[in-house]
Specification:
The protein has 373 residues and is of the alpha/beta class. It folds into 2 domains: 6-175 and 358-371, Glycogen Phosphorylase B (Rossmann fold); 179-354, Glycogen Phosphorylase B (Rossmann fold). The protein is built from 15 helices and 13 strands. Strand 12, helix 12 and strand 13 (319-320) form a beta-alpha-beta unit. Helix 11 packs across helix 14 (343-354).
Length: 373
């Protein structure tokens, strides 16, 4: 993708007035085992809309101070029951349903999902299914779903044929309204220092395999050996287990002057713009960091996540490590040391990242939805 200017990005941000007659419903999953990516992505999409035109239906629990109207679905509620509750509220002529759910949970319930989508479609809702990459995706398991739009906004997404519009590739990635605005400023003021001193470590909202602490230990070891003068912000997500939170807190308190904990921040964007290097997992965050043109290192949480991450890694918009179940921390320290010290390497990553996405994915999606009959 051609690198667009900040001015082009700003003119592409959709305005609420264009969407005044559209009502959006979101059916999402949110619980510790799967992390917060599904909910975060839908909240990012909703940020471009009038909140009065949005309602969330969440299986799990809503986070504290959730800013949108919502209802909770229990794990025991059936797909058919959920569809009836959503349809009962969808009286608007231009009503859309965005479905972003756990893939592995849904694999076992494909027939139920198909019934859900059929019921919501017959109720007048046009559905956007947000899916992952094949073979680890819902569409690959179902092959025939009554949806209007299939959205797979990742590197490596391949277009598939169907009775729907398929939006494939990072040019359709969903960024929040504020994220795009801050990225515009970040792209105007990119400065790659000779050595990276300001680091950000963020392993998702739940860090289910507890990657954060081993990474912090490696950074401390490097800092002690090579006198790097690192200043590291460490994000402790809202779904971290109490044990993991306590362990990270105790470790950081024992190490003076290196680590600063950031507890459950509502958004990470301001931290991206004020860091020299981001260490993150293989989820949505890497695309958000890339939009700012920031160098990043990616730690997939297992070999399956590493396989899904591979198309992104092949763009060379990051340094990538093996799945966390196979990682060698001596190699991690060696690779990170080179990255921290090499302005040339980080500059190359930054330039490549800028070309990965232009921040206009929501604009493209809304145009498609506006054109649907």
């Amino acid at each position: 993708m051609e690198i667009v200017s900040p001015r082009q990005m700003s003119t592409g941000v959709p305005r609420m007035v264009d969407l005044a007659n559209m009502r959006f419903f979101f059916r999402v999953d949110y619980f510790p085992e799967i992390g917060g990516g599904h909910l975060k992505r839908c909240m990012d999409l909703a940020s471009h809309l009038d909140p009065k035109n949005c309602k969330f239906f969440i299986r799990g629990n809503a986070p504290k101070d959730f800013p949108y109207l919502y209802q909770i679905f229990s794990n025991e509620s059936t797909w058919a029951e959920q569809a009836k509750r959503i349809v009962a509220e969808s009286s608007a002529n231009r009503a859309f349903l965005v479905v972003d759910v756990s893939h592995f949970e849904t694999y076992r319930q494909i027939d139920g999902l198909n019934d859900f989508l059929s019921l919501t479609a017959s109720g007048g809702l046009k559905t956007v299914l947000i899916d992952g990459l094949e073979p680890d995706c819902i569409y690959a398991k179902a092959k025939s779903l009554p949806i209007a739009v299939l959205l797979t906004s990742y590197c490596g997404a391949k277009k598939v044929d169907g009775a729907f519009v398929h939006l494939a590739g990072p040019e359709f990635f969903i960024f929040s309204k504020d994220h795009v605005a801050l990225a515009i400023s970040a792209r105007e003021n990119i400065n790659v220092p000779q050595q990276a001193h300001q680091l950000l470590v963020t392993m998702g909202q739940s860090d289910p395999v507890e990657m954060t602490l081993p990474i912090l230990k490696s950074l401390k070891s490097m800092n002690d050996k090579y006198h790097l003068d690192l200043k590291v912000k460490v994000v402790v997500g809202p779904l971290f287990s109490p044990h993991l939170k306590n362990t990270i807190t105790e470790f950081s308190q024992d190490v003076e002057g290196i680590f600063e904990l950031v507890l459950s921040p509502p958004d990470l964007m301001e931290f991206f713009t004020n860091t020299d290097l981001v260490l993150t997992t293989a989820g949505l965050t890497k695309y958000q960091v890339a939009l700012c043109g920031k160098p990043l290192a990616v730690f997939p949480h297992n070999s399956q996540a590493e396989r899904t991450h591979r198309p992104f890694a092949e763009t060379q918009a990051c340094v990538s490590f093996p799945g966390f179940d196979q990682v060698d921390f001596l190699e991690v320290e060696k690779t990170l040391l080179e990255l921290i010290r090499s302005k040339q390497q980080r500059s190359k990553i930054s330039k490549t990242a800028l070309g990965l996405s232009d921040g206009l994915g929501v604009s493209r999606l809304f145009k498609i939805l506006g054109d649907l009959k």
